[in-house]
Amino acid sequence: MDQNLIVREMLLAIGENPDRIGLIDTPKRVTKMWKELFYGYDEFKKPIVTTFPNNEDGLVYDQMITDTGHGFSMCEHHLMPFEFTYIFGYIPNDKVLGLSKVARVVDYFAGKLQVQERLTKEIVDYLDEILEPQGIGLVLNGRHLCKSMRGVKKEGNMNTSVLRGSFRDEPETRAEFLQLTQCG
User: Fold this and answer.
1) In total, how many domains does the chain have?
2) Domain that holds residue 10
3) DSSP letters along 114-128, please?
4) Binning pLDDT at 50, 70 and 90, where does residue 182 land?
5) What CATH number is attached to the domain comprising 114?
6) Do residues 96 and 131 both lie within one domain?
7) Which residues are catalytic?
8) Pair 25, 92 in one domain
9) pTM for the whole structure
10) Taking CA atoms, which of 70, 91, 92, 113 is between 20 and 30 Å from 24?
């Protein structure tokens, strides 16, 4: 299937002239952009998550570790972008994560058509399986253009969370992590 032809047909469908000087190269630019944005469908690009033993140099770390960041994805319902901030946390057992790995995992799973709920769960599923931590959690705070630019045309954010282990089952740990989500 010729992706450039698909974009050309989309331009015609909205009433544009794909042969107009400003649009001649648009089909090529859009298909190139799709390859960049939707790399999350390529299993070969799934990040390798580096972990380290949680006893290196005599240190055993048994407290909460958190990481915050920002990302983008595309809504699968309207093919419009949404942006989000996140706070990820875990309490290690035998492994600790390499510093950049959470951001790489977030970007990979955001690199396909998504709903925020699935995105949150996929990230936690992947990291939980690798880390096998005492507890793990992720909160995403998203701003969806499909809500603000169309439909109800209202601003507002959506929050999703996945909490497991001590983050879900121990009230003090849960409260500590959720309190941290208010700091960013």
Assistant:
1) 2
2) 3-37
3) E-HHHHHHHHHHHHH
4) confident
5) 3.30.1130.10
6) yes
7) 75-78, 116, 144, 146
8) no
9) 0.94
10) 113
